[in-house]
Amino acid sequence: MKILIATDAWHPQINGVVRTLGHLAREAAVLGVELEFLTPDAFFTVPVPIYPEVRLALPPPGAVERRLDRVKPRAIHIATEGPLGHALRRVCMKRRLPFTTSFHTRFPDYFAERLPLAGMTAKATWSWLRRFHAPGAAVLAATPTLVRELDERGFHDVKLWPRGVDAELFRPRADAQLDLPRPIFLTVGRVAIEKNLEAFLDLDLPGTKLVVGDGPARASLAKAYPDAVFLGARQGEALAEIYAAADVFVFPSRTDTFGLVLLEALASGLPVAAYPAPAPRDVIGEAPVAKLDEDLRRACLEALELDRDDCRDFALTLTWQASAAIFLDQVTTAQKAPRPPRLARWLRKAA
User: Fold this and answer.
1) How far apart are CA 146 and CA 151, in angstroms?
2) Same-fold call for 2-164+319-350 versus 184-315
3) Is-above-0.85 flag for pTM?
4) How many angstroms separate the CA atoms of 164 and 222, rounded?
């Protein structure tokens, strides 16, 4: 069985969408499903002024339709609302083909942060997003809170698609060390205005504030906060070792829809400090692995006392295999494509 997925977010971008789709592809193959990706690397691209690290594809007329004919998928999923997502959506609507979509990014919140004077109101952006997703057979969202919010905003057939973590890569490491004053308060992610990093960097904390990641705000924040340590982007083993060597993971974002970095930190045995925003509340719930408080400094200091073994045990319950199985089940059910045998067996076993 083959599924075609259109995504405007792709390598070399480093973000939750790209990482999620990469894990999805690997786990889907284990379950007997081949994923074919329609990505910007096959087309001419242009940079996005407010996201300089992102390039959008400009597919020539007929290119996406020809790709669809060549792939002949049993199901179609549109992961992003960019040019490739729109192009495949138009073809599906023209041919009356069913498709599903997913909601990854709170564009209304991000546009309000980046374009406060551009007239791009949150209300108009939500209206555009509703129109984009409306023809789909289902909209997949990462958390129960986001599912409820989209329902309340007029999106139809919103289904839950939770995320997972690579607990083999992100794990406690007794020998992990950072030559920095302790305690080490770590944050990981895109260094951009919508991540609310100033709320973390403004805190009066002992030890070291450590920022891992790159983005348009990195240079200005590094200049404004010379006492913080900015390491730039890290991936794979290098990133996993940093998680394991830190003392608390700080998640200052109020707008993320999920936050894969939360699970990576917890799998590494690293307790979390965050605002009681939807993403950390949904991901962590009542588990004793985080401190969620409107006083972020208090949350950081109290998180130092949490049990690192509890963090690891919690993360082990959230796997990418389970995430992939839920995605495949939602997509094939919504589009009435048959489940491949391996997926059907896995779902029966999980039940």
Assistant:
1) 8
2) yes
3) yes
4) 31
CB-CB contact of 269 with 28 (8 Å): no
Count Cβ atoms within 10 A of the Cβ of residue 199 and give its class: 0-12 exposed, 13-18 middle, 19 or more buried: middle
Indicate the class that CATH gives domain 2-164+319-350. Answer: alpha beta
Superfamily the domain 184-315 falls into? Glycogen Phosphorylase B; (3.40.50.2000)
Between CA 159 and CA 323 the distance in angstroms is: 13
Average pLDDT score over residue span 224-235: 97
Which burial class, exposed, middle or buried, applies to 31 when counting CB atoms under 10 A from its CB (0-12, 13-18, 19+)?
Answer: buried
Please report, as a single letter, which amino acid is at residue 216: P
Q: What is the DSSP string of 230-267?
A: EEE---HHHHHHHHHH-SEEEE--SS-SS-HHHHHHHH
Q: Which among 335, 336, 320, 282 is positioned nearest to 27, based on CA atoms?
A: 320
pLDDT, one tens digit per residue, over 118-153 is: 445 778 889 999 999 999 999 999 999 899 999 999
Q: What are the sequence ranges of the domains in the chain?
A: 2-164+319-350, 184-315
For Cα atoms 300, 203, 303, give the angle at the middle one, nearest 5 degrees: 0
